[in-house]
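Q: Here's a chain of 321 amino acids. Please give me its 3D structure as tokens.
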Amino acid sequence: MEQISTFGASPYKTADIQLFFGLDDNNLASSLAACPIVRMRPGQYVTDAHKARLYIVLRGALAVAADTRTGMADGTVSKVLPGESVGEQSVLDEQTNFAAISALEETDLLVIEPDIVWQLIDQSNVLARNLLRLLSFRIRAASAQLRRREKVGEFYRQLSMIDGLTGLFNRAWLNDALPSMVATAHAGTTPMSIIMIDLDHFKRFNDSHGHQAGDKALCAAAKVLNAALRPTDFAARYGGEELIVLLPDTKDKVAMVVAKRLCERLRQTNVLDGKCHPLPHITASFGVACLTDGLDDQGLMAAADSALYRAKNGGRNRVSL
């Protein structure tokens, strides 16, 4: 940076600076008269940006990177245009300014030391009001940015909870959701049931028709679940060829009806176009369990797993409670 003038010897006017709107021009001009004006080349950084100073753009434009003290230094850059300023907070709290400031084009910059800023505040509460309005605007902007980031973060968190093949929820989602659902059911003394599903002889299906056909079978099963369940129910891929259905506010008798409906629909599902070969179908074994007093999420899963074992041991392609 190269000092080219002082404010008192320059053609710039205080009326063009946002922070000084409404201040008495005569007192202001005398206070700022000795403040230096520096010229920056495009891409050049403010070398003393770490110091608590107020920088005002008189001509050109600055890029201000996110302050690393916020923990949000993620490439966010603000553009500061003529009449706008940067460094107010560092002056007010007398803390080091960690923002990285650089010129986007040839820029004339007015540099004001903290003691002069406080002198101007003592002389007129107009500057204090202007600072409060400016900082309030920046807080609102930062809050809006945080809300946007939270929404994006939630989107990716939800995305990470989806099984990439079937589109059902995945094991991570189940581990997160089931304990909460069980706790809610216990707290509200409402029923809850789950159905554990295992596609029958899935390894044999893969060996006979290939792994791509196996993937299509899993997707077909997921489609059956999504089409048959209520909006309040949830389906997840537990792992491999195992699927699970969560039925909030559902007693065991209703859960059995749902499981039998799913069993029948799977039995009727064609996986591949037949053409010259018989259409391969899929069947599954279903284990139903209902939440009881004192049973936690792990106990509920164990009860469903035991019921599933009984269905498989009884010949598969059936439902067991």
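Q: Can you summarize the key feature?
A: The first strand starts at residue 2 and ends at 6.
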